[in-house]
Specification:
The complex is a heterodimer of chains A (566) and B (264). By secondary structure, chain A is mainly α. Chain A folds into two domains: 208 residues, no CATH class; 216 residues, no CATH class. In chain A, a hairpin with a 3-residue loop joins β1 and β2. Chain B is of the alpha/beta class and 264 residues long. Chain B folds into two domains: 174 residues, Rossmann fold (3-Layer(aba) Sandwich), CATH 3.40.50; 80 residues, no CATH class. The radius of gyration of chain B is 20 Å and the shape is globular. The chains are: A mainly alpha (566), B alpha/beta (264). The interface between A and B is large, with 38 and 46 residues.
């Protein structure tokens, strides 16, 4: 049976227990117990309550990799049962004394959930038993052979996640197979138990088959293939992938419906912001915390120029499209204006000054002094929707295309600049400002260009935002937007364009979808950022070092003649 | 004819005079060394020449033009390149990208051209890439161009730093302790390599070095600096026997001891 390390079991069991206690005491378990995932059998509260316990058992079983099946099963049982300790204690304590005056969430309803509604002695025993079984199952999962573990783990994850996002999944399914079929799959928001079971088994089979096919094709390609052929195949795959994504992006709003198009619009808006900030922070290494200011400039300029209220100095002269170049220009000019005073600042000092700048702009927009121009606290109302060749872009589905076009343009410019002399200037400056200067790089020009281009993207985002909402208020441009944009490029991976997109989906898209989590949104942010910093400090999709030497070999078909002279 | 002429340069940091009334002539197409004990002001002197520090007094004339107190990037564009005592590569960029950054002053396309990829931009980038690969193999790093600079072995980083400096096609190359941390074998190779730079590419070289074997082997002219002032100048064998130099390195007692030994 191998050596059992009781200290590890105690540590991990209690750790899982603390997680379960935490989720219980902040009220998440109770809040989400109304959110059924699979019929009446499993709700989101259960998942949160047992997640920590299962995690403890999983790690405990992993630490005992030399133990056999029975040993690991026992370890799982013990760790799981131990995990029930603190929540049980909480239930006992709350049945003896009333804790609600201090801990609002420790109430009979929570006790009911934990004890399966059976009261203190029997219910608590059941809870300990259930925890032990959860521990046992997770521990036995680690005993499964490699070929099974992957498919089972992935399928379980997909079933749970798709159940959590059932709003989204149902919406998509309704658009594809019709609402009648969908209603037969769900009860309320939850899967019917049979559906969940079929889905789980089906997914396991699918993944199993995919893994085997991948292995087989690996074996067949072990026969040496010519490089040209392999490259051709790779190119074809890339093109297919590219076309697939292109088609998906084009038809997405019509599959996903109005609400999800609005979510896509939000993601797109932050992708645009993120791409701009990525140039300033990711490429040039200038930590800018007042980035929302340029977004505000864009929105306000668009608002003032196109609104139909009295604020507009030249009513009816500008449409969305004719105002757009002016908006971007204003953004660029203000980027330069901010750039000049902060040229000599580095790191923390730059962050503080830009932070102040962002706040100044918001307070100016709010002030009575500028109210005749910017509308003060009432903001700017009645900004018309853009009209595209007679088609008024008044729905989320149509505005999505506008933000998509803006994001694609920004991504295109970002990529082209990254791979140019200017991109290298930025990165050299980020790495070592002094040495970059000694390489002949004009730091003033390089920094100003970063600020100006980043600000231009942000202003473009602001203009689209103003045209979508039709009304803008100073409060729409608070610090949180800068923080969000910065977080999403850090989570995605600094300097990485796919990273910006993934970051925007994770930090903007997911919270929009998880409406139930709204109250706990910042908690989720925190957890996500901590987990990410521990597991992938360089971001989800870190920027790759561009491979040039190999590429140029491919292009010229062999080393160029210059090399021979050396 | 002198390529670099430094006249009475003084640099003070508060009360400390790091470089004191220093004058130096570097002949075109020569290899010269600046030596001196730790803290003598050698690196400060380099920093004055490359524009990192503003000089308080005196003048620096390079190729007939006064360059003191110009911005570092302008000085580089006039044809001075340098390496650093503690290697300062762009360590998260690939080796090739490091060299491409070094070529900065040789490239002229506008940034906007990169967006629509004008023909001029494409041609220039292709030429720059070819040149970068040539330099990479010139310093013996072919095949390592795609590696992150910070992950290269120490010796390779030193050579990459030289390649990056060469990429700006300098007339004068300042090397700050190019053989620091190398074993005798490696410094021998480096010596050979530096001499090649002068012989094949015609680049004038000025180096700071502590390894006396390298200094005596390679230099045509040596200047000895102590407490910011030049205390001796001349050919290697003159320097070796100069009592002031020995005193600066070993202290007065040891110097007189040596003198006595010689007398015996």
């Amino acid at each position: 049976m191998g050596n059992i390390n009781w200290r590890t079991i105690l540590r991990l069991g209690l750790l899982g227990s603390v997680v379960a206690l935490y989720f219980s005491m902040i009220g998440m378990v109770e809040d989400f117990s109304n959110r059924n995932l699979i019929g009446d059998l499993l709700n989101l509260g259960h998942v949160l309550l047992y997640a920590g316990i299962a995690g403890g058992a999983l790690f405990a079983a992993r630490e005992h990799s030399e133990s056999n099946t029975v040993g690991r099963g026992l370890i799982g049982l013990a760790t799981g049962a131990l995990g029930a300790l603190l929540p049980s204690g909480l239930v006992l304590l709350s049945s003896a004394i009333n804790m609600r005056t201090v801990f609002v969430n420790v109430n009979p309803a929570l006790s009911n959930i934990i004890t399966f509604g059976r009261g203190v002695p029997t219910g608590l025993l059941l809870f300990v038993l259930a925890s032990a079984v959860v521990g046992l199952i997770t521990a036995l999962f680690t005993v499964l052979p490699e070929t099974w573990r992957g498919p089972v783990g992935k399928s379980f994850g997909i079933v749970i996640i798709s159940a959590v996002f059932s709003d989204l999944v149902r919406q998509v399914l309704t658009n594809i197979i019709g609402s009648g079929m969908v209603r037969s799959l769900y009860v309320g928001d939850a899967y019917r138990p049979l559906v969940a079971a079929v889905l789980f088994v089906g997914l396991i089979a699918l993944f199993f088959w995919l893994d085997r096919r991948a292995k087989q094709s690996n074996e067949t390609t072990a026969i040496p293939q010519t490089d040209a052929k392999a490259r051709q195949a790779k190119n074809r795959r890339n093109i297919a992938l590219f076309l697939g994504w292109g088609v998906f992006l084009l038809i997405a709003p019509w599959i996903l419906g109005s609400f999800l198009s609005q979510v896509l619009f939000e993601i797109g808006r932050f992708v645009l912001l993120g791409l701009g900030l990525n140039i300033v922070v990711g490429y040039a290494g200038l930590l800018d915390l007042g980035y929302v200011a340029f977004f505000a400039f864009g929105a306000y300029t668009m608002g003032i120029l196109t609104t139909t209220t009295a604020i507009n100095p030249a009513p009816g002269v500008f449409t969305f499209w004719t105002a757009l170049p002016i908006v971007v220009l204003v953004g660029v000019v203000f980027g330069l204006l901010l750039g000049f005073p902060v040229l000599r600042m580095r790191g923390d000092y730059l962050a503080i000054v830009t932070l102040g700048f962002g706040e100044i702009i918001r307070i100016l927009a709010l002030s009575d002094w500028l109210a005749p121009i910017m509308g003060g606290a009432q903001g700017i109302l009645k900004i018309p929707n853009p009209v595209f060749f007679g088609l008024e872009l008044n729905s989320p589905e149509l505005m999505y295309y506008l933000v998509l076009a803006g994001s694609l343009l920004a991504a295109f410019i970002s990529i082209r600049l990254r791979d140019s002399r200017l991109g290298r200037q930025w990165m050299a400056m980020r790495e070592d400002e002094d040495v970059a200067e000694a390489m002949g790089i004009n730091l003033v020009q390089t920094k100003l260009l970063a600020f100006a281009i980043g600000a231009g993207f942000s202003a473009l985002g602001g203009a689209i935002f103003a045209a979508r909402l039709s009304t803008i208020f100073p409060h729409s441009f608070n610090l949180l937007i800068s923080i969000n944009a910065l977080s999403l490029i850090i989570v995605g991976g600094l300097g990485s364009i796919p990273g910006v997109i993934v970051g925007a989906i994770a930090l903007v898209g997911l919270p929009e979808l998880l409406r139930e989590f709204q109250e706990y949104r910042l908690l989720m942010y925190g957890i996500l950022l901590i987990v990410m910093m521990l597991l992938r400090p360089e971001g989800f999709i870190p920027a790759e070092v561009f491979k040039r030497e190999l590429h140029s070999d491919e292009d010229t078909g062999g080393p160029p003649a210059v090399e021979a002279q050396v | 004819m002198s390529l670099l002429s430094i006249k009475n340069v003084t640099k003070r940091f508060g009360g400390l005079t790091a470089v004191n009334d220093l004058s130096l002539e570097i002949k075109d197409n020569s290899i010269s060394s600046v030596i001196g004990p730790n803290g003598a002001g050698k690196t400060t002197f380099f920093n004055c020449v490359t524009g990192f520090y503003k000089v308080d007094e005196g003048s620096i004339v390079f190729d007939g033009e006064a360059i003191h107190n110009l911005r570092p990037d302008l000085i580089t564009s006039k044809g001075i390149a340098r390496t650093y005592q503690n290697i300062r590569l762009f360590s998260n960029m690939s080796a090739l990208d490091n060299i491409l950054v070094g070529q900065h002053v040789q490239l002229h396309t506008m940034w906007a051209e990169a967006i629509w990829q004008s023909k001029r931009f494409k041609d220039e980038e292709a030429a720059a890439l070819a040149e970068a690969r040539r330099l990479l193999s010139f310093v013996g790093l072919q095949g390592m161009g795609d590696l992150v600079a910070g992950s290269l072995p120490y010796g390779a980083q030193r050579r990459l730093e030289i390649a990056r400096a060469l990429a700006s096609q300098p007339k004068l190359l300042l090397l700050d302790e190019p053989t620091a941390g190398m074993n005798p074998n490696e410094s021998g190779e480096m010596t050979h390599f530096i001499r090649n730079l002068r012989d094949e590419l015609g680049i004038t070289i000025l180096l700071i070095e502590h390894d006396m074997r390298v200094v005596m082997d390679i230099s045509e002219q040596i200047s000895v600096v102590d407490y910011g002032s030049k205390i001796a100048e001349g050919k290697p064998k003159d320097i070796q026997s100069n009592p002031q130099v020995i005193e600066a390195y070993l202290g007065r007692g040891a110097a007189s001891g040596l003198q006595r030994q010689k007398a015996k």
